[in-house]
Specification:
With 115 residues, the chain is an all-alpha fold. The protein has a domain at 71-115. The protein has helices spanning 2-5, 8-31, 40-62, 73-89, 95-114. The longest helix is centred in the N-terminal third of the chain and has 24 residues, at 8-31.
């Protein structure tokens, strides 16, 4: 009996996680019509969100973990500055060309470093 029930624990945990996720999403959809996006709470939440993204980005550039830590700091800062320059050079402030710039420059550094 125990061998038959061994695989069910994972499926029960997955099912509970799915139910919890979808209940929260359903509640969000139900309540979304009653929430004002211009309220002070949402302005504060937006500010905190942007601050966290900025802090994590700076941390990733200045104190990276893993393979990114092998790239010199000055090179990471220069690539970030070039990507930022690409983003703000366009009136639409498009993100995809900026991300491609940073990715391709890091890839080029990795290729030239390994040769």
């Amino acid at each position: 009996m125990n061998a038959d029930m061994q695989g069910w624990g994972v499926w029960l945990a997955l099912s509970a996680a799915c139910i919890g996720t979808y209940v929260c999403r359903a509640a969000g959809v139900k309540l979304s019509g009653h929430i004002h996006q211009d309220s002070e709470v949402f302005r504060w939440l937006s500010a905190v969100t942007y601050a966290m993204v900025a802090a994590l980005t700076v941390r990733m550039i200045l104190m990276p973990l893993g393979l990114l830590a092998t790239v010199p700091v000055f090179l990471r800062v220069v690539i970030c500055a070039l990507s930022l320059a690409v983003m703000v050079s366009s009136p639409q402030r498009r993100l995809v060309p900026a991300l491609l710039t940073g990715t391709l420059l890091m890839l080029a550094y990795g290729v030239f470093r390994s040769t």
